[in-house]
Amino acid sequence: MKKKSIVVFLALLLIITACGPLPTKTAPVADKNVLYSDDFTNPKSGWDRFQDRAGVTDYSNIGYLIYVKSANMIKWANPTKKFPNDVRIEVDTTMTVGPVNNAFGVICRYQDPSNYYYFFISSDGYAGIGRKQNGNHSIISSPDGKLEQAKGINTGAASNHIRVDCIGNSLTLYANGTQVATASDSTFPGGNVGLIARTYDTGGADILFNNFYVYKP
Asked: Given pLDDT bands bounded at 50, 70 and 90, which one contains residue 34?
């Protein structure tokens, strides 16, 4: 990686640190329904660590960071896991830097880089559920194939608690306890999970993730 990219990444970590601790929502340690969890304090816990000119997916000192430097770009990350067909996923998210015209959230039923479901909210209050199939992206939660404005999303740099239910053919997205998008699809069976973020016309979206949990629903 070039020196300029390293400087940018280090600067982002300093900005995130200055923002102070994030609100946390953690699952009970003894919850038998927890299939997997990660607070991202251990940089060897198995998530992707990747940096290039378009952005960064890596552990930071207070969570997991996806920085999408380029415009109209998607970055995602996975642990090395596989889960049954039905799961509930929860994670805390914060946009620390960048345009509010962004999208970020959770992946479920990840088969490979070209096939998975993704669940987006945005910092300007939109939400939607998407499917990447054979490398082609489509929003399947709305008739016009676009993210829709939704109540319940904390906009700007505020934190949001995301919950995703992948149960049978039913896909549901919640933000801070409010249902913001639904879809029905049977394309993918169980698979890996993950985190995702994207930019549109303006690059520079920096999303921090914390307290990642996968539950048996």
From this structure: very high
Query: Based on C-alpha coordinates, what's the Rg of the chain?
Result: 16
Q: Using CB atoms within 10 Å of the CB of residue 93, give its burial: 0 to 12 exposed, 13 to 18 middle, 19+ buried.
A: buried
Dig out the tokens for 58 from the structure. 């890596």
Q: Which two tokens stand for residue 101?
A: 């015209």
* 164: β partners: 89, 173
> What domain count does the chain have?
1
**Per-residue pLDDT averaged across 137-153, rounded?**
97
Question: CB under 8 Å, gap of 24 or more: what pairs does 15-22 form?
Answer: 15/96, 15/97, 15/206, 16/60, 16/61, 16/62, 16/63, 16/65, 16/96, 16/206, 16/208, 17/61, 17/62, 19/94, 19/96, 19/157, 21/62, 22/62, 22/63, 22/92, 22/94, 22/159, 22/208, 22/210
User: What does pTM read for this prediction?
Assistant: 0.86
